[in-house]
Amino acid sequence: MKLHRIATAASVAALMAVSPAFADSDAADTSKRFTAERVFDVEYATDPQISPDGRTIVYVRHSMDQMTDRDTGHLWAIDVETGTQRPLLGANGSAGAPRWSPDGSRLLFSTSENGKPALKIVYMDTGLSYSLAQFDEAPSGATWSPDGKNIAFSMFVPGEKPGFATAPKQPKGAKWSDPVKVIDDLTFRFDGQGYLEDGSDQVFVLPAEGGSPRQVTEGEAAMGGAAWLDNDTLLVSGNLAEDRDMDPVETEIYAVELSDLSITPLTSRDGPDHSALPSPDGQTIAFRGYDDELKSYQQNKLYLMDADGSNVRELAPDFTGSPDQVRWAPDGKSLFVLFEDHGVLTLNEADLQGGMTQVVTNIGGTSIGRPYAGGSFSVAKNGRREQIAYTAGFADRPAEIGTIRSDSRDNRILTDLNADVLPYLDMSPIEEIKVASSHDGLEIEAWVALPPDFKADGSFPLILEIHGGPFSMYGPFFASEIQRYAAEGYVTVYVNPRGSTGYGEDFAQAIDRAYPGYDYDDLMSVVDDLVARNYADPDRLFVTGGSGGGILTAWIVTKTDKFAAAASVKPVINWMTMAMASDISQYVRRHWIREDPWTNPEAFLKLSPISYVDKVVTPTLVMVGEEDWRTPTWEAEQFYTALKMNDVETALIRVPGSPHYIAGRPSRLIAKTDNIMGWFAKFDPAKAESDSETDE
Prior knowledge:
This protein has 696 residues and is an alpha+beta fold. It is built from eleven helices and 38 strands. The strands form nine sheets. Strands 31-32-34-33-35-36-37-38 form an eight-stranded mixed sheet, with helices on both faces. Strands 1-2-3-4 form a four-stranded antiparallel sheet, with no helix packed on it.
C-alpha cells in the first residue's frame, strides 16, 4: 500500500515553484509585480477619531512587522486644516481604540505594558501619558462619561468552575495528571479563543485619573456595549434570560444605576436590541435591532426611544439599507448612519423624521487580505457644519483617512500611506461588471482584477474568488490576495451573488434555507460572461473561496467539471457536524436549518457537499486552520478523506496556530495565497503543455 503524507503549508509550497503567467520566462522581471513579500510593505489606516472641536484626527496606522510577523498599530494625529500628521506616541508596542475625552484635552487608548493589556491616557497639550490600570484580561469598548471623570469598559470575569468531585491531595513531589475539566455550557469553545474559561464579560467603571476598576454588572450572562446615558447611568446590552444559551441572537438593552447598581430593562421584544447610543442631551436613545423571525439573516433596523425605554419608534422604516454604525450629530438634531451599499459603505445623515441625505460613499479599504468593505467614521462640530473623519477605500491601495463636511463639501484625502511603494508597482486595474443570473435574470454585481499585461485574447487563466459569510459583501477595494493573483497573470473575478448583503434584505434572504443553491447559478453566470468576453481561456478556469466561499467552492465541484482545479478554504462540508460541534452550533440549528439533525438529517445533508462527493472529478485542495472552531478542522478533513477515497487529486493544508481567520498574520496570508496558486499551477493545462514542449 502506498502511504501519503498529509500536506502542510510548508510542503505544499513546493507546488508553486513556477508561477502560471511567467512560466515561459525564467528571467521575468518581478521588480514591478506585487510579489509575496510586498505584503510586509503595505500600510493602512483604521478607526479615525476626530476631536470634539473638529481640528484634529487621531487614527490607527497599521504596518506589517516582518520580524514578529504581526500587524501592528500606532496612533498618529492629523491637523485637519493643514493635513500635516505626526506620530502621537513612541513606537514601543502596539496601540489602538483611541477615544477623545469630551473636552478634547485627553485621549484614551488601549495598549500593553510588560506583556499585559492596559488602558492609557495621553494629555494632548504636553504629550505625556500615564496608565490607568494594568489588567490580567483585556478591556474593550472603553468610553468616557459625559463629564470626563470616569471611563466604562467591558472585561472578562472568571467564574466558578463546575465539578462533581474534589480531587485527593497529591503527595509532596508527585506529578499527577492535570485535573479534569467539567463543561456545562452549550457554547464551550469559540473561534479565536479555543475552549472557554468559566466566566463572562462584565462592565466596569474606572476613574479617569486612575484607581481601582469597579465592577457594575455581574452574573453568568455576558454584558457589554457600555454607553453613558448621563454621569450616573450606564446603558449595557446582554441577555439575562435563563435559557439564553438556546437563543444565540437575543439581547436586550438595560440601564444600570451606578449609585446602587440596580438594573432595569429598557427593551423586551423577541429579537436582538443592541448598540445603545444616547443623544447629547440624554433624552433619546438610538439603537439597532430587529424582530426575530428565525431566519438565517435579518437586517438591523434603526430605532429611537425615550431615555426610560418608552415611545419606541423605527427611524426611516422605508429605508432599505442596514445600519452598520450610527453616530449622533453634536447638536442632537440628526444621526449619521453608515450602511452597506452595493459593495461599498455609504454614510447618510438622517433627520429625526427619517429623511436620508447622502454625505459620502466608498468608505472601506480596511480588509487587507480580501476585498471586504470594512471601514468606520467619526463626527464633530467644526464651525457651522459637522466635520466627518472616515476611512476612504480605493481599488489600488488600502484605506486612507479622509475628511468631509456634512454638506458633502471639502472632501479631502489626508494621508498617502503607501506612496513609497505602490505607485512604483504594476497594480491591477479593477473593472465592475453586472451580469444577469441564468437562474432568473437577477442582476449580479462583480469586479474583475486584470493582470498588468492583460489582453482580451482568450488566453488568460481565471480565478473565481468567492466571499465568506455568506451574508457579507465584496467591493471595489484593494486586497492583497486579489493583487497577488493578478500579478501572477490571473484574471480574478469576485462576485456578490444572491445572499450577499448591501442589496436589500430580500436579496440576502434569497438563500434562506437554500444555501448553497441558486447562488451557484449566479457565480457560473459571471464566469460564463467573462469567457464570452474573451477574458479567459475556458480550459484555464480555477475557483477558490474561504468559509462561506469554501462551502460554495466545494459545492461547485460537485456540480460541474468546468474548473481545472479548486481550493476550498475553511469550508462547511457537512451541516450535520456543523450543527453539532461548531462554536455556532445552536445558531446553525435554530436559525439556519431550523430543524433538529437527529430527527430530520435530510434537511442538513441535502445542502452538504459531502452528500455529493462522488460527483467530484476536479482536483481540489482543502485548507483549514488547526485552531478553527467556526468551521472546525474536521469539516475540511471530511472532504479531503472522501476525495481520497474516491481517487480525486487532493491535498490537505493545516495552518498551525490559526483560527478561522487564516490571514491574521502576514506570513499566513502569504502562505494561503501562494499555496493556492501553486495548486492551480500544478493543474493548469497551459503549464502542462509548456512542460511537455520543454521535455521534447
